[in-house]
Amino acid sequence: MSLKTSCDSTREGSVRTAVADSVFDAEKGKASQPGSHLEHASVPCTSTPEFPDGGLQAWSVVLGAYLALFSTFGVINAYGVFQDYYQTTLLKESSPSTISLIGALQLFLLYGLGPVIGRIFDVYGSRVIMPLGSVIAVFAMMMVSLGQENQIWQFFLSQGVLFGIGISLVFTPALAVIGHWFQRKRAFAIGIVASGSSLGGVIYPIMLQELIPLIGFGWAVRVAAFTMMLCLVVSCLTLRTRLPLRGRVHISDMVDLEGFKDPRYALLGAGAFLLFYALFTPYFYVEIYADFRGMSKHISKYLLAILNVFGIISRVVPGKMADRLGPMNILLPCTIMSGVLCLCLWLPAKGEIPIIVFTALYGFFSGAAISLIPSYIASISPMDKHGARFGSIYMLVAISTLVGTPTAGAFVSTIDEKHFQRLIIFTGVLAIAGGSVLSVARLLHSRHIMFKA
């Protein structure tokens, strides 16, 4: 594995490169000329590593990251099943808004701890935080299986707080490590990894809904936890960093405020805040809406699976397109279409077919919006700050998801036509508003439609 050198402003970066060159040459058994690396170090230059963009090691990292998201974000994508079961059976004394706060807390911690975990990843890699997060996440689900009826505090602590911390320790490094192995195919690789969350959103809802009537809620959740454990063991064995790890952990480095001096990055943060404020509303409430419209339970229980099946496609195909056209050129129309679908298809949908069509299309376009944001962050950020920049954006996303989902729950405190209409309009308008802000970031690249951004 070789390194290409290019001029830079610091001598320190060159010395680090010299060490990295020696390590990588030694790994491949290549002899290097004595003093050749010192010659590079003698002038102020730094190095741009040559990315594998494929090969057994790179794709094994993708497999590990895929299984990590399958077992973390995939469970979050299945929260609609928990929401429905809690409202109707286990936590009947609690309001829908309060119950949805459990799922929102998972998302808040998943994204909100991103700045801290992203910076730790930049310095130490994934060797410690991945196994730690895996143990915490599996333990948390075991505790959920022991939750007692109408004791909502138990679910807040286990499923909201503990599980949220565990999956955050897994999610951030699983996405950030892809930047160590891919450059030209980065959006495609991240798309494949992100599709793991959609597959999890297919498997876990079906698993839980089929097992709960057979073996009860407790054992159904334990089966899900054992499935998570198996996948996360593989993730811990395959995920590895490749580039030299740099710096030390300082509190001032965990949120990379320098990034917000770039107007594209700042606008991405604002657009993502608006988008994620309402993005997960259909994931939590489309099944409840279908029940309200009288859809057969045999069909409505598969709506989350349908939504996430199309999410699998939307993670991979738009990712491949983004490598050719630029991530923002795909992210922008998918974001706006997510809002348009809510207003033009979900709002008037009353029968089974319109609801199913909306669910499938929303799964496709919203899934693309979720998976392409990391690709765009990577495309406009310095390579050694991918983790911190990624975490800083998702700190904003954390706040929006924490507030947004319970806000949506407040709209449907009463299950009727009027309240659902307000919920759907709220969701659609915010998604379109987020897309409008992203369009300004796109214009900062170029006004030409065919410009790769």
If you compute it from the alpha carbons, what radius of gyration comes out, rounded to the nearest whole angstrom? 22 Å
Query: Which class of the largest domain in CATH terms?
Result: Mainly Alpha
Question: Averaged pLDDT, please?
Answer: 81
CATH architecture of the largest domain: Up-down Bundle
Major sheet details: 2 strands, antiparallel
Strand content: under 5%
Q: Helical proportion?
A: over 70%
Low-confidence spans: pLDDT under 50, at least 5 residues? Answer: 1-47
- The geometry reads as globular
**Individual helix count:** 19
Number of strands: 2
Secondary-structure element string: EHHEHHHHHHHHHHHHHHHHH
Lateral strand order in the biggest sheet: 1-2
What fold name stands as the CATH topology of the largest domain?
Answer: Growth Hormone, Chain: A
Secondary structure category: mainly alpha
Number of domains: 2
Corresponding CATH superfamily of the largest domain: MFS general substrate transporter like domains
* Through-space gap between termini: 29 Å
Protein architecture, described:
InterPro entries: MFS (IPR011701), MFS_dom (IPR020846), MFS_trans_sf (IPR036259), Proton-linked_MCT (IPR050327). One of its GO terms (cellular component) is membrane. It is found in: Membrane. With 453 residues, this protein is mainly alpha-helical. The chain is 75% helix and 2% strand. Residues 1-47 have low confidence and may be disordered. It has 19 helices and 2 strands. The protein is globular. The protein has 2 domains: 3-49, no CATH class; 56-445, MFS general substrate transporter like domains (Growth Hormone, Chain: A, Up-down Bundle), CATH 1.20.1250.20.
